[in-house]
Amino acid sequence: MLHFNRCPHLKQIAQKCFSSIHVRTDKHVQLFLSRTFALAEFRKSWHSTHSVVGDKNIILMGPPGAGKTTVGRIIGQKLGCCVIDVDDDILEKTWNMSVSEKLQDVGNEQFLEEEGKAVLNFSASGSVISLTGSNPMHDASMWHLKKNGIIVYLDVPLIDIVSRLKLMKIDRIVGQNAEISLKDLLKFRRQYYKKWYDTRVFCESGASPEEVADKVLKAVKRYQDVDSETFISTRHIWPKDCERKVSTKFFSEAVIEGLASDGGLFVPEKEFPKLNCREWKSLVGATYIERAQILLEKCIHPADIPAARLGEMIETAYGENFACSKIAPVRHLSGNQFILELFHGPTGSFKDLSLQLMPHLFAHCIPPSCNYMILVATSGDTGSAVLNGFSRINKNDKQRIAVATFFPENGVSDFQKAQIIGSQKENGWAVGVKSDFDFCQTAVKGIFKDSDFTGFLIMEYGTVLSSANSINWGRLLPQVVYHASAYLDLVSQGFISFGSPVDVCIPTGNFGNILAAVYAKMMGIPIRKFICASNQNHVLTDFIKTGHYDLRERKLTQTFSPAIDILKASNLERHLHLVADKDGELMTKLFSQLEEQHHFQIEKMLVEKLQQDFVADWCSEGECLAAIHSTYNTSGYILDPHTAVAKVVADRMQDKTCPVIVSSTAHYSKFAPAIMQALKIEEINHNSSSQLYLLSSYNALPPPHEALLERTKQQEKMEYQVCAADVNVLKSHVEKLIQSQFI
User: Which residue range or ranges hold the Threonine synthase N-terminal domain (predicted)?
Assistant: First the structure.
């Protein structure tokens, strides 16, 4: 067996990063420590088997022409360690002939087998290993290599690989024949690279080998530094004693817990990762799935979710569940206005973009020893999206994860109500509440903060509560992708060049969607202004204009756009925390005051800082209907009421010096009565099914949503529960659902 001795210099990039986890305890949390220790043990196990410490190898993987050999030599020089090129140092020495001669001699299939055997007979430690482009197609040899190294995928744009191979005068690679082109074979091979990598280095067009080598070392350092990316509560108060351990959570813990124990929301302790201009440009031609994989890998540490597993989740979430292959396409409406269509998912709203992925993230993060009950408050679209998303997790996960969604009984459209109720599955239920959304949301938050009740559920039923609203970081994070993707699509379609600014206008209720756009800007997307569009419940507009968040004497009004009929915008706390330089003490003061006195005022300096990026206005019901009518008449495009609210505000607030991307958050089919009123279609006792089919006969844009049409064909009326607006009654429902599901 070939063996290469360990190079001790590799320790230059290795650190002992895993330290003991400090666990907050109260009288009930002790009953629940097995969950925390399960997470700790998981991370310790991951650390012990995957970190690059001492005798581990750095293994460079990628297609022919990716630069593995060149980059490997540079890394070897930087670390002063052995560099092994599988082609030159293993295969050709084993076979006593060149690789090309061997391929010509034995053919594709036999070559892969003999290549794999040669690698199985080789071992190394503390070295940099450059694989062949075909090594990942042999499972046994890759498992052999993976045991003692970190596999770094050099992800080079396909167009660059093809041009490099032409320059290298390579016209045939392993697996290629007359029936398959080089380009198609390279695409085919990507599935094998995605299967094996531990961390990915995105090699944008124009990056030099030295730059790629530096990226590899940073990726390796990040991979083995399992404590480097943590989360804090927005109400976390920084200790005066700098030596004291800051109470932080890992991504997996933030996703599982949903809401911080102090009532705050989890946010990254450090800044968002940022892509450089060339990296963004290399994503212009990428698919939505490819963009999501690159961006989310940078935001989720592989200790929480391994990169290859995350990629599988993303492909599952966005593979076949969306009616449009582009997932979230951008459509030119008129002038400088573009519509970001976020309604092509299975339930017809923007919530699908995160809730087709979030359940898979959640199921991966939870320890196997506990059951979880997801509590959701919905103003309309979230409920059906959560129930649909969690119905798609695998059978074993359904046995330990259940969902209860609370919606205002008379505060959503008839279609939304039917959709929520119809989305109930074996692990999900809908509960109507005789109140408004703000009560539902406040009640759910109150249940989470009630340590007596949550402790009782853990002790009595072994069940932990969590959330899937946008207060949960795992729900909010995927929304960043579609804001970035929309900008890249405008570049791809030739409307702008990369670096040109755009504005975004978003119908806003709970502040999550517009906050995700803020995070996209922090990652490098050049968004100039965030235009916050409100309906007649315009508390956010008033706040952005004055700095005064005032709920006194303000009652919730039911409108044609129910998803933003919200007075308490939960995610605003995350943005104020950012604007106020992570002042947790101020957040505690402001939001305690909001609960107790129903208003708060931020100081002038913070108002000015907020207004640097944000403008806001609101739209009346009449203006909303008029916008739907006029847009259809001029362009043949039907806006849903939420999108109409945003268009009215965009028309009023945007100065037309740059493009504005208007987020279309739902398909118009969900609000047929309002659309028919706007388009002046006489309603003659139409039920929801006939209303949808009547609208679909107009041949308007966007086309009918097939999944929503299918929903109307369901004749069977499902039962659901209705409860009074009393937190104790909601608690009783939660306990009964836990009993029926888990006991």
Answer: 247-318
